[in-house]
Design goal:
The chain has about 700 residues and is of the alpha+beta class. The chain is built from 22 helices and twelve strands.
Length: about 700
């Protein structure tokens, strides 16, 4: 039976690994390495517990203890495989070696377990004692080989997260290797190795615990606290001060002659006053603490983590939660709080409450633009601690805090938000969960984050303003199109009213008036329907005889000089279009040609077909246009050559509709010679009046000049 030292040793190991299992199970189960480490700790606890019960009561049997030891080794090798997977992923290595090691481990463990089962249940002794010892040595060497692979294949900056577990598992397997190598050499297990084995395993538990804690957030560095360094530094300074004082007093007395004693008293008095001044000066102590924090310690924050967290929040383009609420949560989270409020400057200059999180605000929440707080923030970028302000208002020059902030019971920090150098908003953070000591690092980080979030708030506000401006622009554009069509209808109806007194008894005039009025009614009805349609509604078309439309338009506009003329009579040419829209755009182009052409000029309408398309040429001998005007202004909305009488959207509207039905409009023009508009439509079908064997021949009259088509 093992001695009492062995009992104490393995009891300690069982307790230590049991506590480690409890620590991991209650807090750290996020990754594969955490779960494998939990499994290894539990199995090691059972293994150590079996040795304790065997020492006390002689149970369990050797086979159970041997089985638990194999499982313990396999569990720690599983931990190494979890680490090895991360190493291979980061280094982009081929997984062949990993597969070989895994297969070797499985085969070795299966062989040792299988031989033990056969020996325990069937009495078949396949492996003798030395072979089993060799198997244990092989498992230990396999574990050490895995640690070597992990360390060699991991990048240098990733080793800090795994060094403790590598050291601990390596020490565990190294101890087993030496113990079993000694056993193989001398033919029996060394009592000293066996008795110390439990304590050695227990001594490795802190390394596992430190590794687990390191992977949570930040590595655990063993260092003195700021207070300890401060007091130690003060003690060193005091020692140096006393040493300087003693040396100074000695030389003053030695070199002072008759005045030596008096000078020594004077020197000690001045030095004592200086020492007392240093000890009671809060400013000196604060500056010393800041100096120590800046030069001897890591920062309070994990800035990489804070910056990534803020970036994720700011990159979220959704409105759930709203951006002001997210800004409040970002700022309050920096100082361990969960409450806050945000005021944003409006156009008049006052600051309006945008959002409040976990905070009860007073009834009146607007901060006046002329308040003393706004002027204070306009002069300096200062974070106001309301707790400090209430205790000592003089430290803030008796600054008057507005009621929306001062009457909020849970307010703590008032933070200015600057866009460039202008105050854009004011944020207030509520009381923290626990007392937080603020220093230069807190304030610096809060100021930087406040500026970044303010930029995002301003950008979002600018996007909202732009969106509203675009909506107003769309409404204005739609109104302009309406006014353009209404002007045409008003001109038609005005002409009827003007001619009614002279032709009221003419039946032909009455028929024309009825026809024109019916057209105006249909035009206005279609206009109303168009306004009611959603913007993305599918374009509705029908098969229309373009030849008939051109003829009717030529007849309609023939009452004004120069009258348009259709060149010859082409066959029936059918296209897909909306009849009212087609009449409107072609009528507008013909009317523009009449406006640009003197009464003695000519306007010719010509139809051509070629390659599945039909082209309508509207050619005039008017004033013409320059190439620059055609390229930059003709189809630009709200640009007109008619002064205040034109909307400048007719040509634009015509081209956009023709493009919507699959066609296009081209223009050729020369100043003082005339213009030619070429309107191309896809053919629906074509029924020429000529012989059917010549569908592609010219069906118009006189040929057009070279510049008429593109």
């Amino acid at each position: 039976m093992l001695n009492n030292f062995s009992l104490i040793s393995h009891s300690t190991a069982a307790i230590a690994f049991g506590l480690l299992s409890l620590l991991i199970a209650t807090r750290y189960l996020r990754r594969d390495i955490d779960r494998s480490l939990l499994l290894a700790a539990v199995v090691t606890t059972l293994w150590a517990g079996s040795l304790v019960t065997q020492s006390l009561w002689g149970e369990p049997s050797f086979f159970i203890r041997y089985l638990l030891e194999l499982l313990r080794d396999a569990a720690w090798i599983t931990v190494l495989f979890a680490l090895l997977r991360d190493s291979f992923r980061s280094a982009n290595l081929v997984g062949r070696l990993r597969k070989v090691l895994a297969a070797a481990t499985l085969i070795l463990v299966a062989l040792l377990l299988g031989s033990g089962v056969l020996e325990y249940f069937f009495g078949l002794s396949i492996l003798d004692g030395k072979t089993k010892v060799v198997g244990q040595i092989a498992l230990s060497l396999l574990g050490l080989s895995l640690i070597e692979q992990i360390w060699r294949n991991s990048v240098s900056f990733g080793r800090s997260s795994m060094k403790y577990v590598c050291i601990a598992v390596g020490s565990l397997f190294a101890f087993d290797f030496f113990m079993y190598a000694d056993t193989l050499l001398f033919g029996q297990v060394s009592e000293s190795f066996w008795n110390a084995r439990g304590l050695v395993n227990a001594a490795l538990v802190p390394l596992f615990a430190v590794n687990v804690i390191n992977t949570r957030k930040q590595p655990v560095d063993f260092q003195l606290s700021r207070s300890a360094v401060f007091h130690a530094g003060a003690l060193i300074l005091a020692g140096g001060y006393l040493l300087f004082l003693s040396l100074g007093g000695y030389y003053v007395k030695t070199l002072g002659g008759e005045w030596g004693d008096a000078l020594q008293v004077l020197f000690f008095s001045i030095a004592l006053v200086f020492l007392v001044t240093l000890l009671v000066s809060r400013r000196v102590r604060s500056r010393l603490m800041v100096f120590i924090s800046q030069n001897f310690f890591d920062y309070k924050y994990d800035y990489r983590d804070e910056w990534l967290k803020m970036t994720r929040e700011m990159a979220d383009l959704s409105d759930s939660p709203p951006l002001p609420e997210r800004v409040i949560r970002i700022l309050s989270g920096l100082v361990e709080s969960n409450a806050g409020a945000l005021w944003i400057r409006e156009e008049r200059g006052d600051f309006i409450l945008k959002n409040a999180v976990n905070m009860v605000t007073p009834k009146y929440t607007t901060i006046d633009a002329n308040s003393e707080l706004v002027r204070f923030f306009g002069e300096r970028e200062w974070i106001i601690d309301l707790h400090e302000y209430r205790g000592d208002p003089v430290s803030y020059n008796l600054l008057e805090i507005p009621d929306p902030i001062s009457h909020t019971p849970d307010g703590w920090l008032v933070i200015p938000l600057y866009l460039s150098n202008d105050l854009y908003g004011i944020a207030m953070v509520g009381n923290p969960y626990a007392r937080v000591e603020l220093n230069w690092e807190n304030f610096d980080l809060i100021k930087v984050v406040a500026r970044q979030t303010c930029n995002l708030l301003a950008q979002t506000d600018a996007q909202n303003r732009l969106s509203r401006a675009m909506q107003f622009e769309a409404v204005s554009k739609a109104s302009a199109f309406m006014v353009h069509d209404l002007k045409t209808l008003i001109a038609q109806l005005s002409l009827l009213v003007k001619n009614a007194p002279r032709h009221r008894n003419d039946p032909a005039f009455i028929d024309d008036m009825i026809h024109t009025t019916d057209h105006a009614v249909r035009k206005m009805s279609n206009l109303v329907d168009h306004i009611r349609k959603p913007a993305d509604e599918t374009l509705v078309t029908e098969v229309i005889d373009l030849t008939e439309v051109v003829s009717q338009l030529a007849e309609h506009y023939s009452r004004r000089q120069p009258a348009p003329r259709v060149a010859d009579n082409p066959g029936n040419i059918f296209i897909n279009a909306d009849r009212e829209q087609l009449y409107s755009i072609l009528g507008h182009l013909i009317q523009n040609a009449q406006d640009a052409t003197p009464p003695d000029g000519e306007i010719t309408l010509t139809l051509k077909t070629a390659k599945g398309n039909v082209v309508l040429f509207i050619q005039d001998t008017g004033s013409g246009m320059t190439e620059d005007f055609i390229q930059t202004q003709l189809f630009k909305p709200f640009e007109s050559t008619k002064g205040l009488t034109g909307m400048g959207i007719g040509a634009y509207q015509a081209r956009e509709y023709v493009r919507n039905v699959g066609g296009n409009i081209d223009v050729t023009s020369e100043p003082d010679l005339g213009s030619c508009f070429s309107i191309r439509f896809p053919l629906a079908r074509f029924k020429p009046e000529q012989a059917p064997e010549e569908p592609e021949r010219l069906i118009t009259g006189d040929p057009l000049p070279q510049q008429n088509a593109k």
